[in-house]
Structures are given as C-alpha cells and as structure tokens.
Amino acid sequence: MHAPYPALRLRRTRATAWSRRLHAENVLTPADLIWPLFVTEGEGVEEPIVTLPGVSRWSVDRIVASAREARDLGITCLALFPNTQKERRSDDGAEALNPDNLMCRAIRAIKQAVPDIGVLTDVALDPYTAHGHDGIVDDAGYVLNDRTIELLIGQSLNQAEAGADIIAPSDMMDGRVGLIREALEGGGHVNVQIMAYAAKYASAFYGPFRDAVGSRGLLKGDKTTYQMNPANREEALREVALDLAEGADSVMVKPGLPYLDIVREVKDAFAVPVFAYQVSGEYAMIEAAVAAGAADRDAMVLETLLAFKRAGCSGVLTYHALHAARLLAR
Ligand SMILES: NCC(=O)CCC(=O)O
Ligand SMILES: [Mg+2]
C-alpha cells in the first residue's frame, strides 16, 4: 500500500500555537487539582519539611489562609494530614477518634471560613499510631484487618461529623469501604463521598510523607502485608471492582506517575471517576532535579500533571497544586 504522505502530514496541525491549542486532546485546569496540606499544632506556625522542599506543616489558622488562596485560584479540593504530637500517639491510634483532634479542628475551621472548597480526609491510623502502621498490630507485628476496620469506622464518622466532604480510606484493609459506607448512611451522612485508595502500592516513593506526618522514625517493618505489590496489575482491577461494589464514589491509584498504566486500565475497565496521587517522593524527585539544574520546574509540573489527565484521571492530588494553579492562571 502507498503511504499517505505527502497528502497527509501530521505536522500540519502542529505548525502554529493556535492550532496546537485547538487540537489538544486533554487540558489541565485548576479544577483538576487536589492540594494535600499538613496540619500541626499552634498558631501562626510554619514548619518546613526538609525532605519536601517548598512544603510546610501549618497550624490551623495558616491552613485556613491557604484554603482561601487555593479557592481563589480555582483549586477544588484540599486533602488534610495531621502531624499528631508524639504524646498523643498510641498503639491503637485512639486519637483518631477524638472529636477535638488536630484533623477535626482543621476541618471545622476550613469549612467555616471557606465553605466552597472541598475537604478530603485521609482515613488510616498511621498519623496516630506509636508504631507508624495504618492499623492495629498483633504481637507478631501483623496488621489486623477486622479490628482495624472498627477504628476506621469511628475515624470516618468523626471526620464526617467535623464536616469532611470526602472520606478517603488509605489503609488497604479488606472490606472497609462497605462498612464505612454503611456507617455513614446510618449516621445521616448520605452526601459524604468515599474516594477509596483502591490500588495503593507498597512504594518506595512515600519517604518524605512519613517525615511530614512524623511517622518515619516510628515505623517498624514495612507495609507489604496490606499495600499492593508493585508487580501486580490484575490485582489492582480486583481491588477497584471490590471498592466500587462496596459503594466507593471514586477510586484512587497511588503512587502516580510510575502507575499511570494502572490508571488507564482502571478507567477503561470501569468508566468511573479515577484519581491519582502524585506522592511525596515524586514531588521530591522533581524538586531535586530542579535544584540540580537538570529541569525546568514549571514545565515539568505542567507536563506531569497533564500526563495524569491523558491517562484518564478526573483529578490529581499533588503537592505542586498551588504552584500549578498559579501557572494556569497566567
Ligand atoms: N495516605 C497518604 C499518603 O500515604 C501519602 C503518601 C505520599 O505523599 O508520599
Ligand atoms: Mg481493597
């Protein structure tokens, strides 16, 4: 067969800026961005996180100011993570159930001051446990599934009562989405969404996050008995199918860039809202490349975030959210 060239030239539509824009198949907007924020005790406090240059832990009053700034830039949702004081951590993570814990105070303050931005809250015990695991650990160090779920239900209700809009269980216990949904319905929280961390991998990319929430030095062992093996893709589809059947409104894949193949497969297989988390190690890699003079931050941020859209994401959790929203506002 004769090649279509020269009649067909794909470079023709790329020849001018207006035409490239016209033919763009995907677009990144501030509405696609979920901004993770770390909360700490005190007032007027900003604590820079060394392994996440440019990211800080903020006290509740500073978080509220950030929420306002994010809303004004068109960011749709915040994700909150508490840096729980060491003396409030325990083996069972009971601080997660305290209606006046740092997380609940931050949720209430944001929803009161900036009601038109969404608040997503992480459900897992690692910011509250003395051992840094996401659940209750037995004598052999195994994280107990069903015992842990009992606490996750209480944690979810606690966050919903404080005003959380989206409950995001990141613990990877089996069966927790259905039981949390049932408890939310029973508690009258019928419009509180669940975004399930459905395919969360046991990844080397979470290191700086553990510094941020103060669990790095505490964690004994690793999370491979509950988070997924990076080798697996069929298992991710099973995880997603179960969470959807149990009532998840949307699902998440985590980490982000190294797992975009999973995002695309989930999107194609289920046609549901899929989100991904560009995690702390991914952020740190970009910042390290910029610091080394090896990369242009603005271009890299926008390109990586657009790649999530192309892979099928409805939105992305990213520590670069504010920076990206400012770039998009230009
Ligand atoms: N459950 C939330 C996380 O584990 C975040 C990980 C990261 O940003 O590295
Ligand atoms: Mg699961």
From TrEMBL:
InterPro entries according to UniProt: ALAD (IPR001731), ALAD_AS (IPR030656), Aldolase_TIM (IPR013785)
Gene3D superfamilies: Aldolase class I
Endpoints of the signal sequence: none
Enzyme active site: 200 (schiff-base intermediate with substrate), 254 (schiff-base intermediate with substrate)
NCBIfam families, per the entry: PRK09283.1
Residues noted as binding Mg(2+) in the record, renumbered to the chain: 239
Pathway: Porphyrin-containing compound metabolism; protoporphyrin-IX biosynthesis; coproporphyrinogen-III from 5-aminolevulinate: step 1/4
Name the UniProt record assigns to this protein: Delta-aminolevulinic acid dehydratase
GO terms under cellular component: cytosol
